[in-house]
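Schema walk-through. Below, the input block comes first and the output block second. Nothing else is stored per chain. Lengths vary across the set, and this one has 184 residues.
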Amino acid sequence: MIDDKSIEQLLTWRLAQAETEAPPAPRASRLLELARPWWETQPERFQALWARLGMIQIAYGHAMVEPHARRGGGYPVPALIERAGETEIETSVCVLYLSVSARRMSFRFHVDTLPEHAASGLEVTFVAEASALPLFSAHAARSVDSEYRLDADLTEEIASDWRELKVTDRMPFRLLLRVQAKAD
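--- output ---
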């Protein structure tokens, strides 16, 4: 039978061992830097990507042949896929589902063109089409084929502006899609 004294000694010894093996805590400035969105830490990269994304033109019209019609979506949303160390891919996404309720957005979309090895996750940065300002970024998980879904918290201003949007409406944003590295 193990007495309480030996368990206490064992736990004290294990705590001391863990403290000596633990890396030092990061400085507050480092924690603040890690919390900043990528477009603030890499403003030149964001400007270069926006310059390219802003130039993407998509034809809108009733008579055009559109792959989105078979998916039930509305207007295509211009998007740019960024992969580290590789050329960006210009594409568009079809909004399949969009719901904004109580400052929470649920968003599902289909990516028209994906790299050969489709990513299991994308970091999606919503950029206001009118002002070219990044609004927010969220992780999108792949569901099936080239479809992704995400849930994100919105500011009150964005939530009130987007609350009435329907998938058939022209979206007030463009998307920067950043392929996330695979976890080994």
